[in-house]
Specification:
binds adenosine-5'-triphosphate, binds magnesium ion
Amino acid sequence: MIDTLAKSFIDEFYSLERSLFRGSVPCSTVQFTSSHSGEGVTSITLAFARFLTTLHGGDSVVADEANMREPSFHELLDIPCENNLRAVLSGASKVDETVQVSKKYGFHCLPAGPSQSATDPPSYATLLQNLGEAVLPELQNRFKHVLVDSPPAVPFIDSSIICRMVRGVVVIVQSNLTRSEVVRHTLDKLQSGQANIVGTILNKRELHIPRWLYRFL
Ligand SMILES: Nc1ncnc2c1ncn2[C@@H]1O[C@H](COP(=O)(O)OP(=O)(O)OP(=O)(O)O)[C@@H](O)[C@H]1O
Ligand SMILES: [Mg+2]
């Protein structure tokens, strides 16, 4: 799935890579979010990490799973998550003990941890304060490309907190599902949290003719 997405979004990823990392003020840290759950934020984040790995090598790329509400890195990447971002944010682990390499895809990753029970939800807003102070600076020292997977922006506050800690934000929009008014609301909400929106990606498009023909329309 991750390799398939990396191939099918290759044009979008090239232009994102050019605008993010080669501009006069390159972004080293980019956040991915959406309006609602399931639009494909994690899939696109990991596919972009894979794309960057093929271009620059895995030693320059880390994907940080800052979605502690619906963590999925451990399943999608088939990695252990006993050492995880939650533990780092609460002071129980260190960043360098927690970052691991995806054997399958070659980039580095920092899983959020296992899902939490709904009866005892931690205060994500409090935990996330440490992301900008304790985690991202260390990742930025070690990696050229830091990708931050984050929860949807409409139901949760997390993305509005994280967007102040990163250089740019990419919003994933699910085609034929998310209404333009909702996307506008999401962009407004993030921008009022001081986000620098650097792009949007339309995901799950249904193509009715071969993809290459679209450039002639
Ligand atoms: N371009 C795509 N084509 C087909 N399926 C996709 C695509 N992108 C994502 N999916 C599928 O959609 C589902 C949701 O994707 P994903 O977990 O990446 O969403 P998410 O926005 O991270 O969700 P959450 O907010 O719960 O973290 C998954 O089953 C994934 O495999
Ligand atoms: Mg996700």
